[in-house]
Design goal:
Layout lengths: L1 E6 L4 H20 L3 E5 L4 H7 L7 H8 L2 E4 L11 H13 L4 E7 L13 E8 L7 E7 L6 E4 L5 E3 L1
Parallel strand pairs: 1-2, 1-3
Antiparallel strand pairs: 4-5, 5-6, 6-7, 7-8
């Protein structure tokens, strides 16, 4: 059994996470993936009501009790400085020493699309310096000869 902590976040994050959970529950039904989900209400609503972004002991609980975290988009205009988002997102990244965000994408057999069947991509965001804002985004398409990277926030591409 794999335990996954679910933090839907705010706004569209709640919607996207809900749909992601529908897919993952279906994976459980069809493939017997044995995934267990525990949802946490950490986001703008909780922050506005209680002034708490992440409760004490959250990191220890994640390390001890969970195999993964499904984290939705976060941010709410009712909190102009987005303090809760920084306290949750950056705290998770640094507190759990998360240095890479890997997002593999591939075409599922039988899916209707105009994209060639050989479609395969992987986006990798890595923390290169102590501050997370200094990240590099890499997108791989197909073979290693077509690798490219983009420096976050600059929009500048280069071949790898």
């Amino acid at each position: 059994m794999k335990r996954i902590a679910v933090i839907p976040g705010d706004g569209i994050g709640i919607d996207v996470t809900r749909e992601s959970m529908r897919v993952l529950r279906r994976v459980n039904e069809i493939f017997g993936a044995r995934l267990e989900f525990v949802e946490f209400d950490w986001g703008a609503e909780k922050y506005l009501k209680e002034g708490i972004a992440l409760p004490p002991g959250a990191f220890e609980m994640f390390r001890r009790d969970f195999d993964a975290i499904l984290f939705g988009a976060i941010g709410d205009p009712r909190i102009p400085d987005q303090r809760h988002a920084a306290e949750i997102l950056l705290a998770l990244r640094f507190g759990l020493d998360l240095y890479a965000n890997v997002r593999p994408v591939r075409l599922i057999d039988g899916a209707r699309t105009s994209t060639p069947a050989a479609f395969s991509r992987k986006a990798l965001r890595m923390k290169w310096r102590p501050k997370w804002r200094s990240t590099r985004v890499r997108v791989w398409t197909g073979s290693s000869s077509t690798r490219s990277s983009m420096r976050a926030g600059t929009g500048k591409r280069r071949s790898a």
